[in-house]
Amino acid sequence: MSVKESLLKILEESGENELSGQELADRIGVSRTAIWKAMKNLSEDGFEIEGVSKRGYRLIKHGDSLSEESIRAQLTENLKKNKIILLKSVNSTNTLAKKLAADGEENGTIIIAEEQTAGRGRRGNSFFSPMKTGLYMSIILRSEAFPLDTDMFTICAGCAVCKAIEGLSDKKPRIKWVNDIFLNGKKICGILSEATTDIESGNIDSIVIGIGINLTTRDFPDDITETAGALGESTPRGRMAARVINELYDCLNKSREENILYYKSKSLVLGKEVNFFTNGSVRQGKAVDIDPSGQLVVLTENGTEKLNSGEISIRL
Predict the structure, then answer these.
(1) CA 59, 62, 68, 74 torsion: positive or negative?
(2) CA-to-CA distance for 83 and 61, rounded, in angstroms?
(3) What local confidence, expressed as pLDDT, does residue 170 receive?
(4) Range of weakest confidence among 11-15, 140-144, 193-197, 240-244
């Protein structure tokens, strides 16, 4: 661990408590000059450190650089030992996570990239993932580690993103079934859950949950410029990553009923007329409920139908 990373870790953990330059130097085992240089480097990364004469230093503003130490310091105590893999660039965090999961990577491993060159969405769609403007993250979850059935993992991810955004900003996101997160009529987050299976037993071995959030992204490609948006907040990516992870684990340890209740409260589609694709044709109905398994209940001219997957659009 570098001096800068060690210094950031100590300042993150100390919170409002001020630490003298000498105390910081002693704890890390370097000179005060090295501490000063590390503080300068943190400042260049966007971190703001306040120094008070005869009292010491404290971190008052987080930078936007992604570092393992910064993320880990903001995780809840039971998650601080989770493995974190940070990458400058990757084709897709989900693609890498699935490979690692199949190779036996441990439960709870977190993969985060500064950019994705081939980010993936649901049904083969791409996810625009430019450098340093969004959070691109995948988490490997072994199903036996959680009380909920795997059909709830995607629901929990949607709930976690909404709770994280509401906890770190004044924005009020909504969930478009199945799991696109919308703000002001535009999609700001996509969630892709993929299973890996054990070849011998055929059982689900792990679930990889991919989460892509547009934080400050602009200049979207022409084909999505009318539908894609961004949170528009300067929330540090490391803080957002930690908050989403914390909220996800909290949801995974709640009951099915609690998660569905919150999920419904954030729904963008309930009570709306929708189009949905089934049996090779587009049909219409009114979204009236989300059942305990997460299926969308649609009232059509022929009665109620339950959708367990697929694309829907809201009729204007």
Answers:
(1) positive
(2) 25
(3) 93
(4) 11-15
Q: Tell the burial category of 268 from Cβ atoms under 10 Å away from its Cβ (0-12, 13-18, 19+).
A: middle
What percentage of the chain exceeds 90 in pLDDT?
63
Angstrom distance (rounded) from CA 127 to CA 111: 16
| Tens-digit pLDDT profile for residues 29-59 | 999 999 999 988 888 777 888 888 778 888 8
Confidence of residue 316 (pLDDT cuts 50, 70, 90): low
**Nearest Cα residue to 146 out of 76, 241, 261, 249:** 249
Q: Are 296 and 305 in contact (CB under 8 A)?
A: no
| 3-state secondary structure labels for all residues of 71-95 | HHHCCCHHHCCCCEEEEEEECCHHH
DSSP symbols for 129-179? --TTSEEEEEEEE-GGGSSS-GGGHHHHHHHHHHHHHHHHSS---EEETTT
79-117: pLDDT as tens digits: 999 999 999 999 999 999 999 999 999 999 999 999 999
The string of pLDDT tens digits covering residues 212-238 is 999 999 999 999 999 999 998 778 898
Report the greatest alpha carbon distance in the chain.
77
